[in-house]
Amino acid sequence: MRGEGAAAASASLLVGLGLDCDEAERVLIAGLEAARDLLSNMRWTGSMSPDAAGVPAQQIEGVCHALLELPMGVRDLGPLLLACPALLACKPAALLEQAEQLRRAGSLKPKALLALVLRNPSVLLSATEAAGQLEELAAALEPWTAQPRSLSSLLRALAERKVDIDVEHLLAALAPHVTSAFTVKELVRGCPKLLARDVARPRAVVACLADAGLAASDLERLLLGCPEVLLMDPADVQLKLRFLTDFLGERPARAALSSRLLFHSSVPNRIGPRFAFVKSRGAARALKNPSRARPSAAELAPSTLLKSTDQVFCQTVGCEFDEFIAFKVSWQAMYAVRLGRSRGHRTGPRQSE
Questions:
Q1: Domain coordinates of the chain in residue numbers?
Q2: Is the dihedral of CA 122, 128, 130, 131 positive or negative?
Q3: Which family does the record claim for this protein (predicted)?
Q4: How confident is the model over 60-99, as pLDDT tens digits?
Q5: Percent helix, strand and coil across the chain, each rounded to 5?
Q6: What is this structure's pTM?
């Protein structure tokens, strides 16, 4: 009975932090398992030994009070423990010591440290390793930044443990095409996964975009607005640029490339059929009215053509929905093998695109 009462008190405490009963039970079970693992390895750091009653309410309270000193809001405690129940197996004082170790290693301000912990609370369980990663990042950035130990822009990368690649190599790969190391830091801030990829892909994508005719300043603006393009398949980027070039009748314009819609749209399901449809309508108009051989400026704007669903596209260019869908199915059938199946794309018509 005493064990059941203790377990109920622990669960009640977690429910008071905003968890439902099932979530509280999962946290207690996982926290108890973590405590037992530590005990079996002679590393139990809790204030009391775990037993059948589960993690004591006293231990939970101590951990919560320690986390609130980071400082953290009470509303953050429940989600944090749900994300990392093993925190319940730590001494409160040890948690604060580990947090301070992280702060010193990265010269982090309190808000930056809190952001790191909230995104990946498990860093408090391995502060030595995480602090080492912060120090390596600081050293790698030192030749490139005026404030080498200001790493707040890289916190998300660390939180995802995506720091296997040498940052200096990434900087060197992008340096010929961007104007400053600050730009590279901003790219990493916007897309932390860059730190987990081999530099060959971003280097190839940047070269591809530069070959499309973008000046360094325009390319920099594009990358800052859409850094995830650096993770895309260079062949896929080239294919989309070819369609854009064919549609515009010239090398891609800066305004067209500034839209991330181009890089996030499917060639077989959106880019190809929509561009081809507008061009075909322009040719048909030219036969009927030679004075208007081209579609309107609104119809020609790639960013406009790629927006939203097929229904909105039809309204934009002034055509019947059934007319476009019939054209789209025909276009996909003609180009499916070359543009779809050979590249693993889905090529069936999507009514919602």
A1: 1-90, 265-353
A2: positive
A3: Belongs to the mTERF family.
A4: 778 888 888 877 777 777 778 777 777 777 778 888 888 8
A5: 70, 0, 30
A6: 0.48
